[in-house]
């Protein structure tokens, strides 16, 4: 999620439906899915086609699979039966008992209490709600009935276990959250006990009721609720809220104007929810709850409450906000009339003790360029400060924001220095490459492509289109990293002469030009069979950076189809040149040179995206014909190698058996 890259994608056949969430088996690193209620599938990362993976048809419909880190997967059936996955796989068609008859399961969760897996699920029948607790190793099942209240119906559940007690929280239709305590140690064998509910929290904001749809527990004193805030005469607005249950206060909230699916997940101090058409991830951090924090009167900026550590910037519609607290040092509130020098001194004086990164950057918003960049360099030099990566991301964001507000300002050297010397990612500052594309800063784009592991396919395509659209003559005036082409294209600059040379299995060609601005009419960079390199070394180096970037074919292909036909042909010519070159010398030498697999993958992608256009373009006809002939020759060559594979293996076996003590010559005849 942090890299914003899909790692795998699997599909069931048309007509089949995945009927419960897919889980990961932590012990075997396998994925487990149920489709059409009864069909179990198990596969690993390397598997591609679900039709060829393990399949088992079960005897009863499955409600949910829960995966426990140390307890293995647990399968809950719709009629209340429970099995561990290991037991189920021993006999997939084993009979599953019916625990519930007319009840419908509404929610379930699994926990580990010591070495004991515990499963809890709730059911509904005719408006009554029931709770089942099953301890798998002891094979004990307890059933409870939830206390019923008028005009109140449970909408959502969540639970946690501590000290042999399950705490079940219910989000109810009367805009309240209730708490139910269920002890794991039961001395009685009564069939059904009634559980009483105690009010934990009223979801009311300034007299307006929050209609919650889902909620999660953050710690013993905080919960997060996703829902809509209704007001009389106004349209309801969806929002994410964080509440302090100990002091009954709203800690912070955020409006979600694009709408959500109503589902909220929480994992490793991150919220996950859909906002519009994207999955949004928001980091949070809970500190020890205190009354001062709960009522927003916390003075010490070093020990803020939960609201100070919710980074709402993920939603993308605000400027840099690191701390959500409204309190700022008084020295920074009324300083607009100070001189720049005194302003800089004030910042330097209070920064170490009282200023957060966000406050410092906010105070530098109107500073001169020199002061601004000096302070940013000083901030980055503190390599030992906590959250260093996040700080660099904030610095980049501040630089990009200034570029947007002042079109004449573009600190190329500083941006390049940060990207080259820091271990960064695209997600730390998504706007960096967008601005570089606007400025056509190809050197910075090349560096980002080489160093960022998480560049979205849309941005990769934009870089490719930009590189192909700039003429070779113009690129020769620009600094570009040529490491990836130097080892197979020798480049010497002598006044206005360009000399290129193929190092292996080729020959040199020389071309004189009257001017860099004149169009190159003759091609250099010849391979052994006379194929020309269709681009200059600068453009070749930029395209090599694109070939090295990670991508998902599913997400890149739609963008690649928008590439203009002439640029697509040019790119294919270059890929064909690299393909032939790789075949001559087996692998391109040098730093960051494309591999044969990368070249082949991009050729296939480009042909998939533009095959119809390529076939109809006269200038592409010869290229496609040459490509077809070359691939056919390669296939024949490897086919001949396959024929003697057995003989070569036998030869290798014979050589291992013999012990050559002295010099000898042996002639073997392959029949």
TrEMBL record:
<dbReference type="GO" id="GO:0030490">
    <property type="term" value="P:maturation of SSU-rRNA"/>
</dbReference>
<dbReference type="GO" id="GO:0003723">
    <property type="term" value="F:RNA binding"/>
</dbReference>
<dbReference type="InterPro" id="IPR048897">
    <property type="entry name" value="Nol11_C"/>
</dbReference>
<dbReference type="Pfam" id="PF20998">
    <property type="entry name" value="Nol11_C"/>
</dbReference>
<keyword id="KW-0805">Transcription regulation</keyword>
<dbReference type="GO" id="GO:0005730">
    <property type="term" value="C:nucleolus"/>
</dbReference>
<keyword id="KW-0804">Transcription</keyword>
<keyword id="KW-0539">Nucleus</keyword>
<keyword id="KW-0010">Activator</keyword>
<keyword id="KW-0698">rRNA processing</keyword>
<dbReference type="Pfam" id="PF08168">
    <property type="entry name" value="NOL11_N"/>
</dbReference>
<protein>
    <submittedName>
        <fullName>Nucleolar protein 11</fullName>
    </submittedName>
</protein>
<feature type="domain" description="Nucleolar protein 11 C-terminal">
    <location>
        <begin position="359"/>
        <end position="670"/>
    </location>
</feature>
<dbReference type="InterPro" id="IPR012584">
    <property type="entry name" value="NOL11_N"/>
</dbReference>
<dbReference type="InterPro" id="IPR042859">
    <property type="entry name" value="NOL11"/>
</dbReference>
<feature type="domain" description="Nucleolar protein 11 N-terminal">
    <location>
        <begin position="1"/>
        <end position="285"/>
    </location>
</feature>
């Amino acid at each position: 999620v942090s890299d914003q890259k899909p790692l795998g994608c699997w599909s069931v056949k048309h007509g089949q439906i995945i009927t419960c969430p897919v889980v990961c088996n932590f012990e075997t690193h396998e994925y487990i899915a149920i489709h059409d209620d009864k069909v179990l599938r198990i596969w690993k990362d390397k598997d591609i086609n679900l039709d060829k993976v393990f399949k088992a048809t079960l005897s009863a419909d499955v409600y949910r699979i829960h995966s426990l880190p140390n307890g293995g997967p647990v399968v809950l059936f719709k009629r209340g039966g429970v099995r561990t996955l290991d037991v189920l796989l021993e006999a997939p068609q084993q009979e599953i008992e019916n625990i519930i008859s007319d009840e419908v399961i509404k929610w379930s969760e699994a926990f580990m209490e010591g070495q004991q897996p515990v499963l809890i699920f709730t059911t509904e029948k005719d408006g009554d709600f029931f709770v089942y607790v099953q301890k798998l190793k002891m094979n004990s099942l307890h059933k409870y009935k939830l206390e019923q209240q008028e005009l109140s119906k449970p909408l959502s559940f969540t639970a946690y276990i501590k000290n042999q007690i399950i705490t079940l929280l219910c989000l109810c239709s009367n805009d309240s959250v209730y708490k139910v305590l269920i002890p794991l140690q039961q001395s009685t064998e009564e069939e059904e006990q009634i559980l009483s509910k105690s009010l934990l929290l009223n979801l009311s904001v300034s007299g307006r009721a929050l209609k919650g749809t889902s909620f999660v527990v953050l710690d013993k004193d905080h919960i997060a609720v996703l829902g809509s805030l209704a007001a009389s005469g106004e349209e309801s607005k969806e929002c994410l809220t964080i509440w302090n249950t100990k002091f009954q206060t709203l800690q912070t909230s955020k409006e979600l104007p694009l709408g959500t699916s109503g589902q909220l997940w929480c994992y490793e101090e991150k919220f996950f929810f859909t906002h519009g058409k994207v999955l949004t991830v928001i980091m949070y951090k809970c500190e020890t709850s205190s009354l001062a924090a709960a009522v927003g009167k916390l003075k010490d900026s070093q020990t803020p409450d939960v609201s100070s550590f919710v980074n709402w910037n993920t939603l993308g519609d605000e400027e840099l906000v690191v701390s959500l607290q409204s309190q700022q040092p008084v020295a920074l509130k009324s300083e607009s009339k100070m001189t720049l020098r005194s302003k800089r001194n004030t910042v330097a004086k209070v920064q170490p003790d009282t200023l957060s990164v966000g406050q410092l950057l906010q105070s530098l918003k109107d500073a001169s360029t020199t002061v601004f960049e000096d302070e940013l360099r000083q901030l980055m030099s503190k390599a030992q400060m906590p959250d260093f990566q996040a700080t660099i991301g904030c610095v980049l964001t501040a630089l990009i924001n200034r570029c947007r507000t002042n079109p004449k300002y573009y600190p190329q050297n500083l941006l390049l220095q940060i990207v080259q010397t820091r271990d960064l990612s695209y997600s730390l500052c998504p706007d960096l490459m967008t601005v570089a594309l606007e400025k056509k800063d190809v050197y910075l784009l090349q560096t980002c492509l080489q160093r960022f592991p998480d560049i979205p396919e849309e941005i990769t395509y934009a870089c490719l289109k930009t590189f192909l659209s700039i003429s070779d003559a113009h690129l020769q005036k620009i600094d570009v990293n040529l490491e990836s082409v130097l080892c197979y294209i020798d480049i010497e600059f002598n006044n206005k002469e360009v000399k290129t040379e193929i190092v292996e299995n080729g020959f040199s060609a020389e071309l004189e030009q009257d001017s860099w601005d004149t169009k190159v009419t003759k091609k250099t960079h010849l391979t052994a069979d006379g194929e020309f390199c269709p681009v200059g070394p600068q453009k070749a180096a930029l395209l090599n950076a694109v070939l090295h970037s990670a991508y998902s074919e599913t997400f890149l292909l739609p963008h690649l189809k928008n590439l203009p036909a002439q640029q697509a042909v040019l790119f294919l010519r270059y890929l064909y040149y690299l393909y032939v070159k790789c075949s001559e010398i087996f692998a391109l030498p040098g730093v960051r040179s494309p591999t044969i697999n990368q070249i082949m993958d991009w050729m296939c992608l480009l042909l998939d995206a533009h095959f119809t256009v390529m076939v109809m373009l006269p200038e592409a006809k010869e290229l496609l014909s040459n490509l077809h002939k070359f691939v056919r020759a390669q296939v024949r060559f490897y086919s001949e190698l396959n024929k003697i594979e057995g003989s070569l293996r036998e030869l290798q076996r014979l050589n291992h058996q013999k012990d050559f003590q002295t010099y000898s010559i042996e002639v073997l005849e392959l029949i």
